Amino acid sequence: MTAAFIFGLIAFAAVLANIALRDHRRALAARRRLFDDCRGVLEAEHWSAGGDGFPALEGRAFGQDVKAVLIPDTMVMRRLPQLWLSVTMINPQPYAPSLSLLARHSGNEFYAVTLDLPRRIEPPGGLPLDVLVRGSGPMAEALCRELAPVLAKLLADTRVKEVTLTPKGVRIVRQVAQGQRGEHLLLRQAVFGDVTVERAEFMRTLSDAAVLIAKRDAHLNSEAA
Amino acid sequence: MTQTTTIHGEKISLLRVLGPGHVWALGVGIVLVGEYMGWNFSVGKGGAMAALIACWVAGLLYTCVAMIDSEVTSTVAAAGGQYAQAKHIVGPLMAFNVGLFLVFAYTMLEAANAITLGYLIQTVGGMMGMTDAAGEALVLHDKPFIVLTIMFLAWLNYRGVYATLTFNLVITAIAFLAIIILFFAVKPWTTEVLQHEELLTGLPYGWIGVIAALHFGLWYYLGIEGTCQAAEEVRSPARSLPLGTMTGIMTLLIAATMTWFICAGLMPWEYLGQAVTPLFDAARLMDSMPLMVLLFIGTIFSTLASANGCINDASRAWFSMARDRYLPQWFGAVHPKYRTPYRAIVFLVPVAVLFAYYAPLDQVITFSILSGLLGYTFMTFNVVMFRRKWPLGSIDRGYVHPMHPLPALVLLLLCSATYFAVFLGYGTQLMAMMLFFIIASLWFHFHRYRYVRRGDQFSMPWPRPQGDY
To answer: The complex's ipTM?
Structure first.
């Protein structure tokens, strides 16, 4: 009887372990494929994988260096896990102010720059009401007013989470997917299913970042003049 | 086929609410452990009939919780549950306390799960009758398993999204199916196995026993409001909230009644009232090896699933409090590789181990229930303040709970009765817990509050509140 009990348990554990390992391998493979659709969008592209298996992409677009990373986010209670795409376009402007806008903030956005900036700025008209705007000072406020129409258009897309302009460049964070409800409810797992970063969406994000850089440069030039 | 229902004139897809393939589960996986252990202490407080009445009354309490919580949560689109509600509606001191309630409720539940798991392994080890070389019976100790369970799950949570347990449906399905199979195995349509006529002895302590039983009656459902409701990032959670939670409560109510029916017909109340693993004990009484294996696996899985969820939720609550500067910001760090609140996870491990190692199961459960109960009490005045500050029509509500303020009053009444029930059996623990929260509140008020950025607390695009606030 005892031997049968132990044998049954070992067999059951072995079957479960096999399923778990197979599923784990599949999940990691799915993560590696997330940027597959965006192949060739960047010039001189370089692929790397993060510690959590999510890929990162570096290269050039619109004449600027670009870095794209995927950020899994499970930091808010009673909300489904989120997968964010962060696209940074590097464009050093040492005298530019820092300005950042964060939509639907909960305070837990560990990846966000907005919460680290010192001054809160009243959102100009046209922006969604749930956007937190922060900047480095009065110059950031002026930049915000100048860019308001572009920013409002960007943030009208509810998948855009954060838009940041700093002396180093511009960053846009947007939602790629959210975790499957069942997997999250049952064992708090962040399973995003069979998703990829869509090529068109990636190109649009790059183009949005390039537009922001151009508008900021124009504003800085006019201020300097 | 997509099944639909209507709330306030809006059609809801049941499949969208629940997710395909998870209709039966509803996130009950984490709460299902309440059927496997803990509930039976209510039998010890007032007899088997009192436990059943307490189970149903607790169902009413949770119905009020679901109604109130759904309305408030349907407007706080930023997610976060009661903690976010307290920040927006009451203020930082209340949010600090609600955060602590959540952390303690989950950490104590995690400790209770580890105790049960350790005890079960000890029991099964004893059943195997292993002996050493000298022929002496080997005693398997539960403590190493308690510590190992907490450490292993904390490590899994530390690794976060790097680890994937995509077979979770199998785990929770087995835990749920085990109860149903046991129910049919005891042939409830005959008196061949179940002996309710002999074992149901009325109310040994009278109606005061029923009130006393309310204490552990909450255990069947503790945390259900948090597990069924998970908001989406860009879409208002409004419509899915009440339906999801109410279906979860009904699932638990059925499972709880079945569990009670099996156990009350197999064991005298004096034994049942102090058992650590009542469902596994019921399977042992059936003298069937397959049933024992099934209930052993069911208990292991339900405790593991629950403890895993508890570590996740407690660490997120602790992390949120640190991000809001209610606690030292050091706890608000995210692991650069695994993207987890690793400092919060590690900090809470010794707390769980300490309670699991030294405190008996009923006391650990009492601490968890008390923390949950404080959270439910907060909801009563929270909803009244919410309706006063932002009356109907002033902000967009996805769901409006009916008969306000009746659900709040019923909830307050049931919470008060449960405090009295806890006082009857665990007065010292009740006082100790209250003292702890008072001291913590004083620390927050006189020391920590100066670090809080009040302006950043409020993140909802609501109009200015009405009245003198």
So the answer is: 0.91
Beta sheet of A64-73, edge-to-edge order: A43-49, A55-61, A64-73, A82-90, A169-178, A160-166, A99-103, A131-135, A119-121
Estimate to the nearest angstrom the gap between the alpha carbon of B184 and the chain centroid: 27
Domain span at A65: 33-224
Q: Of B361, B415, B329, B378, which is closest to residue B100 (Cα–Cα)?
A: B378
Do the domain assignments include residue B396? yes
Q: Dihedrals φ, ψ of B130, to 5°?
A: -75, 145
* Pair type for strands A99-103 and A64-73: unpaired
pLDDT > 80? residue B18: no
Residue A77 lies inside a defined structural domain of this protein: yes
Yes or no, beta carbons of B292 and A53 under 8 Å apart: no
Identify all chain B residues contacting A53, using CB atoms and an 8 Å cutoff. Answer: 162
Residue B7 lies in a domain: no
B129, part of any domain:
yes
Task: For residues A180 and B230, give the distance between their C-alpha atoms in angstroms, rounded to a whole number.
Answer: 11
Per-residue confidence (pLDDT) for residue A26, from 0 to 100:
84
Helix (H) or strand (E) holding A134: strand A131-135
Picking from B61, B55, B28, the residue whose alpha carbon sits closest to that of residue B41 is: B55
d(CA B298, CA B176): 7
Residues for chain A: how many in total? 225
Subunit contact B27:A186, Cβ cutoff 8 A = yes
B320 contacts A79? CB cut-off 8 A: no
Residue A186 is nearest to which of B25, B289, B293, comparing CB atoms?
Answer: B25
Q: What is the pLDDT of residue B16?
A: 47
Task: Give the rounded percent of residues in chain A with a pLDDT score beyond 70.
Answer: 98
What are the pLDDT digits (tens) for A85-102? 999 999 999 999 999 999
Tens of pLDDT, residue by residue over B249-296, are: 888 888 889 999 999 999 999 999 999 999 999 999 998 888 998 999
Instruction: Give residue B171's identity as a one-letter amino acid code.
Output: I
Which of the residues B233, B243, B315 would you substitute to probe the A interface, choosing the one with the greatest number of A C-beta atoms within 10 Å? B233
HSE toward the beta carbon, residue A94, CA cutoff 13 A:
0
Residues of A in contact with B26 (CB under 8 A): 185
Assigned domain for A14 exists: no
Strand ranges (DSSP E) for A62-130? 64-73, 82-90, 99-103, 119-121
Q: Name which of A24, A106, A161 is nearest B164 (Cβ-Cβ).
A: A24
The model's confidence at residue B442, banded by pLDDT at 50, 70 and 90, is very high
Number of domains observed in the structure of chain B = 1
Helices (H), B74-205: 82-89, 92-127, 143-159, 168-185, 196-199
The whole-angstrom separation of Cα B258 and Cα B264 is 10
